[in-house]
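Async update (no meeting this week)

Hi team, since we skipped the sync, here's where things stand on the single-chain job. The sequence we agreed to prioritize is pasted below, unchanged from the tracker. I ran it this morning and attached the output directly underneath so nobody has to dig for it. Comments welcome in thread, and please keep replies under the output.
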Amino acid sequence: MFKGSMVAIATPMHEGGAIDYSALADYVEFHIGSGSDALVPAGTTGESATLDHAEHCEVVRFVVEQVRGRVPVIAGTGSNSTRETIELTRCAKEAGADACLLVAPYYNKPTQEGLFLHYETVAKTVAIPQILYNVPGRTACDMLPETVIRLSRVDHIVGIKEATGDIDRCKKILAESDGEFLLISGDDSTATEFLFAGGCGVITVTGNVAPRQFHSLCEASLEGDWDKARQINARLAPLNRDLFVESSPIPVKWCLAEMGLFPTGIRLPLTTLSHIHHETLREALRIAGCL
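Output:
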């Protein structure tokens, strides 16, 4: 059910920071028309850190209703508070999301046992498919393979988005986890290698601006057409790199505005993309076939 190009969608905002739901509706249709295999609202790329609780739930509900079952919706519901994570996960379930994506608790730096108990508690409390999310570069908390393997045997935990780019780590998890456990890449630059190694898909940032291309990349990789996958990946490589010249989602939101898909709004403490990077991103978009 969860495979291929799963896009961690940005949240369109007006200049003052209010969510632009009309643009969000159009953006959902853009992705469905472009072949994206699933949508992931209210994650890091969706500026979840600056959405209040009501906004977070409303964005998920709105995307679920706009999608109308045409592709899976995986709601970002992670927090560094177990109680808040449970509340957001319940909200996503009530909204009709197909699954939830739960980032490792950030800032408070739990132990591996704390991570296990955090995820186990959420999984036992809310009966919805749950995908772990390990991104130590953002959270200062690395969920080790041994912990992931333990969690793979907990009911309702169905997979992990692994964003370290460590292919050997992914192979270890694949070899030792529950047989149905899904490995999903969270690092666009190494996604092709990840899929070659046995991953089922990518929760992607680049797919925001190049959905058709990223879908084709995943499709070719999963079908074993390595030559085609590498050719597509080569054209996407500048985007995979340059969408992180400043903190995400700053560059991706600038690109979406440049493509005429989004208004220019972004919430503090994030700011609009520095002018020195504009031409770099334009060139990456041109190479990928987005402009």
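Quick observations from my side:
The longest helix spans residues 226-242.
The beta strands are 4-8, 38-40, 74-76, 99-103, 130-134, 157-162, 182-185, 201-204.
Reply here if anything looks off.
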